[in-house]
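As a warm-up, study this chain.
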Amino acid sequence: MRNRTVLFASTIIFGGLYIAAAIALGSTPGARDDGTIVGAWFRDHGSNVRVWLWLATLSVIAFAVFASLIRRQLPSPHRDIFFFGAIALAVESAGQGWIWAGLGLHAESLEPATARTLLDVASFWGPVLTSTTILMLVPVTIVAWRREAGLPRWLAVVTGVAAIEQLVETITIFGETGFIAPGGPMNLVLGAGLVLASFVCIGLTTARAMTD
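Now compare it with the structure written out below.
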C-alpha cells in the first residue's frame, strides 16, 4: 500500500475516532462544580468514560501512523520538532486518560474531595497540551508558507491561525471559571476543534503531495 494512501486513511481514522470519543464522553463536570457533583457524574458516566478511553486508545495507533508519515515529508529540523510535539501529545493524553478512567472505575466509593482534586489535575491537560500542539503546528506553518514539501500556502494560514489560538490558550493555566477555565470550552471546544481541523488538513494535504 502506498504511503499517501496510508496517510489519507490514518488521518480520517484518527479524526473519526477523536470525534466519536468526544461524543461518547459527552458533557463533563465544570471547574466550579464541587466534589459531590463530580463524584456523582463519574458514578453516572463510568461506562461513558471507558468507551471514551477505548476509542482514544485506538486513535493513538492512527495518530502514530499519521505523525510518522508527516515527519517523513517535512524537512529537517522541522520534522524533528513536529515529531517531538506529537510524541509529547500522545504521552500527555495517556496520562489524562488514566486519571479519568481511574476516577470512573470505583466511583461509588469516591470521596468528594478526592474526586475534585484528581479532576483538577486532569483538567490541566488542556492548558499544558497547548505546547505540544504548537510544536506540531508551527513547523508545518513555516514549511507550507515557503511552499516546501509540496504543501500549499493556504495550509500555512490554517495551521498558523490554530497555532496562534493555542498560544493564546496558554492563559487557561491561570483560569478558574467559565470559558478560560482549565478543561473548559477554550480548551475542549475552540482549541480542540481548531487543532483537529488543522491536523486533518495537514494529513490530507500532505498525502496529496506525496509521490509514493
